[in-house]
Amino acid sequence: MKTISLEIDGQHVQAAEGSSILIAARLNGIYIPTLCYHPRTRQAGKCRMCVVEVKGLPGLQVSCSIQAQDGMAVLTKTEKIIETRKMIVELYLSNGSHNCMSCEAAGKCELQDAAYHLGIEKSVFPVLKKDMPFDVSCPMIIRDMNKCIQCYRCITGCNNIVVNEVLDMGFRGSKMTVVCDTNKPMGKSSCVVCGECVQLCPTGALTEKKTIGRARAWETVRTRTTCPYCGVGCQMYLHVKDNEIIRVTGVEGTEPNYGTLCIKGRFGYDFVHSPERLKTPMLRKNGVLEEASWDEALDYTAARLTDIKQKHGPDSIVGIGCARSTNESNYVMMKFMRAAIGTNNVDHCART
Amino acid sequence: MAGLASTLGAGAMTNSIREIEDVPVIFVIGSNTTESHPVISYSMKRAVKKGSRLIVADPRKIDLTRWAARHFQHRVGSDIALLNAVMYEIIRNEWHDRAFIDDHTEGFEYLKETVSKYTPEYASGICGLSADEIRELASILGTADKVGLYYTLGITEHTTGTDNVRTCANLQMLLGHIGIENAGVNPLRGQNNVQGACDMGVLPDVFTGYQKTSDPGTREKFEKVWGVEKLPGTEGAKIPAMFDGINHGDIKALYLIGENVVMSEPNQAHTVKSLENVEFLIVQDIFMNETAEYADVILPAACYAEIEGTFTNTERRVQRVRRAVTPPGMARDDWWITGEIAKRMGFIMEYNSSEQIWNEIRSLSPSMAGITYARIEQQGIQWPCPDTDHTGTCYLYCDNVFPCGKARFQPAEWKPAAEVPDEEYPFVLTTGRRLWHYHTGTQTRRSAGFIDIFPEELIEVNPEDAQKLNINNGEYITAVSRRGKVTVKSWVTSRVMPGVCFMTFHFSEACANVLTNNAFDPVTGTAEYKACAIRLEKSNSASEPEKQRVHRENK
Ligand code: SF4
Ligand code: SF4
Predict the structure, then answer these.
(1) Atom of ligand 1 nearest to the CA of A154
(2) Would the CB of A196 count as within 6 Å of ligand 1?
(3) What percentage of chain B reaches a pLDDT higher than 70?
(4) Longest Cα separation, chain B
(5) Average pLDDT value for chain B
(6) Is residue A200 included in any domain, yes or no?
(7) Does residue B160 carry a pLDDT above 90?
(8) Does residue A235 come out as left (phi exceeding 0), alpha (psi in the -120 to 50 range) or beta?
(9) How far is B282 from B384, CA to CA, in rounded Å?
(10) SS3 at position B113
(11) Mean pLDDT across chain A, nearest whole number?
(12) Are strands B53-57 and B25-29 parallel, antiparallel or unpaired?
């Protein structure tokens, strides 16, 4: 791919031909705030937060929608630009109910970040308070449309990325809001609860129900891993606080899932912390299962297997492995059966 | 997977998930993709948005048909008849890829001969589609630039599963749609690491990377590294033979890791009998489940969020699993537990980390030799990957190099399911999964919210049948097979065709595997979950249709 050179805020930078000014800036570590832009939903041209000045072009330009050109000179922080951005953010803040106090998105909200970077305490405009009831009909997702900034990311995601075709913009003017199907509660709609819209939402309008009140965004540590459910092997982050998983998100920008997940991968994590998990080895004594130490259980198991092997030969022992366990554990299990027991009687659940 | 291994050489998805978006004709047969592999269905649906044609052949009107250009609703278990007729038409119209067939395959004449009797008219009588519909399908596939074929358990879980798979491979070989990008034969694997368990040799006849135990040279290699004098060469028992062996008294001990066989194996009564009969049962699992109730020893295992290691996904990609939380109580890594038992039996296999184990696997498995933990830190690598400079393999058989020299046509005759409906048991029961739950429900039923969405099992019954039997939507009915009976709530829906019912094995209260038939594919030992005969009876339990949020009908 051809690279071009341009100047952003007096800094010489390089970019791939065809990339937008926004991408060129971001890849070179220059922050241009955005609200509606997301790498997967691409430019929406809705929020106008990313305005810049380009030498030779009149007025302000929307940097997510304009291609960077060789030799271009771009300014991203002039007074005019800052004033415009402030006004945009203040307009957003005056429309709806952007109360950050106990918002689940605090700390990862892109509107909050923009306000912070621009030093806005509260809107200079009178607040047009919306009073839309929360939609809590879905067991996994809460919708607070008072915090929606109409960036269209969730709509694009639902229709063009996961193609579940549930969300759309409904109503007009000040009543404009995102609707499920024909304005049904989410839990009664055709939504398949994949959570893509939650992952894409820049504010606290869409949040995970099970996470409410469990942790502020900055209190969690995330670990990247692979989904434990189907064979797609989606890449995901487990967000952990105090040794408990409190949220799961898809890893952006990598195969095989590029950030998307399904209901099981995104919301099916709390079985890990179920009080019903087996915590101690158990041995059957006089017909009942009783708790035992590892040494007791392992010694007993080894002794019984050795005895059976001696009396009836290695082929009287069989092993069934686990299609949910790791490669390493499966390997050790098959090595155990073949080398320690001495049989090829090893198989796993054939449900492919 | 034996079907693919014997025709093409490797039992795995030939192509990658990433390629799906650019497949011109996506042919999905026997896969309820939106529910079983949701993220793959997103790719298929995006492809449709970009102009691909999605063709679905499935006995049920699954959700994916909403996005399909055509849905061919053939009868349960008639796949071979349908596909043989499609191949008959392709050959008759000379749509097959002569050059590919001549240069890279063997057995074409044999295929031609086998399919010669499968005229569309003949197959129509078996599969229930009209001869014209079959011709239409043949023309869509036969004249397409490229076809990517995707299947799941709808193909494999039959007594003819291996033949079904071979037939899918035959079709793609006939069209020359193998060994190229955006095409291929692609089994979508149901569980997170079923591909890995196969790759690791948790099978009665192979070591890691499908290296045969019957080959003395291979055995010698493993004997050396493992430090044992002699490894067994004869093929071991598959699961059905294990259970039979227990009941015959030949098999005395069963070491069961993480499989809730009471729920997941067909014919529950038969499984339970084996578990009762076995002299010594070791269950290693994360929950006290229906199977663990029968154990002599229970060993508590750590789960995916608590361990380091790798899983291999359905496109052969080895990816990292990482520890995010500590295991509860005394639960430990599966490999640690197995290693400790070995040690106490006098066989030392001590490892300090999963990476150390992986490096041993690499050293013994040429197809994975180049995949190191360091290399898959950010993104997994697809085997074959022979050395650390190799970037992995997106699609198999590039340049038409097949492991067995040439790809082999293995034509098959259609055979009916082991159990077909009759007067006493007039319905076909087919089984599968739902989006809202997973496997035997041990995980999803213990995660908040899932039960609110889908609280109990439903049996899908066609409206015509419901009317005849006077069954109301939401009414509890009893489903009876030769092996058992369950009481289950009805869902009257045209998702299934008349004469067919559908259930899952997610709920112990109403588990389809009480009913299913323990008849198996002779090659793979996979059970016929997809077809058995049942009858429906009115039940006395009160109906409460309100509690259920019924999954939407097709829009
Ligand atoms: S959860 Fe998924 S299907 Fe439901 S509205 Fe959001 S993106 Fe659409
Ligand atoms: S998130 Fe869903 S589609 Fe992805 S691996 Fe997990 S279960 Fe499969």
Answers:
(1) 7
(2) yes
(3) 94
(4) 68
(5) 87
(6) yes
(7) no
(8) beta
(9) 35
(10) helix
(11) 90
(12) parallel
Whole-number Å distance between alpha carbons of B193 and B401: 27
Beta bridge partners of B332: B301
Closest Cα partner for B364 from B227, B203, B230, B194? B227
Bridge partners (DSSP) of residue B26 are B54, B148
Percent composition of chain A: helix, strand, coil (DSSP 3-state, to 5):
30, 25, 45
Chain A CB within 8 Å of residue B190 CB: yes
User: Residues with Cβ < 8 Å from B94, sequence gap 6 or more?
Assistant: none
Q: Which domain holds residue B538?
A: 427-552
Cα distances from A155 to residues A92, A250, A295, in angstroms, run: 19, 18, 56
Residue B38 CA: which ligand 2 atom is closest? 3
Residues A184 and A228 in one domain: no
Query: What are the percentages of helix, strand and coil residues in chain B, rounded to 5?
Result: 35, 20, 45
* Least confident span in A110-114, B37-41, B268-272: B268-272
How many structural domains does chain A have? 5
Among A212, A209, A201, smallest CA distance to A178 is for: A201
* Per-residue pLDDT reduced to its tens digit, B387-443: 999 888 888 877 667 766 778 888 888 888 888 888 899 998 888 888 777 777 777
Output the CA angle A321-A324-A325, nearest 5 degrees: 65
Going by pLDDT thresholds of 50, 70 and 90, the confidence category of residue B543 is very low
Residue A104 and residue A18 share a domain: no
- Does A250 score more than 60 pLDDT? yes
Q: Which domain holds residue A198?
A: 99-206
* Structural domain includes residue B404: no
- Contact assignment for B46 to A320 by CB distance below 8 Å: no
ipTM of the predicted assembly exceeds 0.95: no
- A287 plus A219 within the same structural domain: no
Task: Indicate if B364 and B508 belong to the same structural domain.
Answer: no
Which residues from B are below 8 Å from A232, CB to CB?
Answer: 17, 37-40, 188, 313-314
Task: Name the token pair of A18.
Answer: 């065809």
